[in-house]
Give the backbone structure.
Amino acid sequence: MKNLVILIVLSVLLISCQKKEQNPVAPVESNNKVTDYYPLTIGNYWIYEFSQGDSSSNLTYQNKIDSIYVEKDSLINGKIFKVLKSTLLQQTTLIRDSSDYIVSSDGQKIFSINPAIDILSEQYLPANDSSYLLVWKMKGIDSVFNCPLGQYLSKYVLGTLTQIKPSAISNIKERNIFSAYSKGIGMVGRRATYLFGGQLLEWKLLRYKINEKIN
């Protein structure tokens, strides 16, 4: 039930690892690969500080951390997916890279490096009610994200949750959430929300490790 209620910024999760310099804002080359921003090598992990707050973005650190790691491969319908796990939310996510996209096991596009892409996906929530429409898009330009490790130029996945019919549980008409991905690191931060209620959840990267793939 908890997993159903919490909207985590797409896919959850992911970032990439490697303790490297805190040097932010590097220029983005034109020959990027999607896994430059969403590293999926087994053994990669990211550790975040976790904050929670109200709908006015008044966030308070909860003295909790969340770790996300790439556990293993999983073969589904002839395609290899990476199994990602989150310790705080106790969630398991399956994703893979597909050309210019990261896609989930149900075929949803959750990240892209294609600057021409508009809408990644649309989803009605909750499944048995459809009071809300959640639309995911890529932000048109890269922007800096601030986290404890420093400032990082990042590609943003933007989510807009819009109420499309009356709900007996919530009257919040619209909420905005996001995930930020930096080249060579992965997810440096994200903001999510509860489906019912105005509380916000936020993750900011504390440290990470990326295992370089050996061919």
Remarks:
- The chain is about 5% helix and 55% strand.
- Residues 1-29 have pLDDT under 50 and may be disordered.
- The radius of gyration is 17 Å.
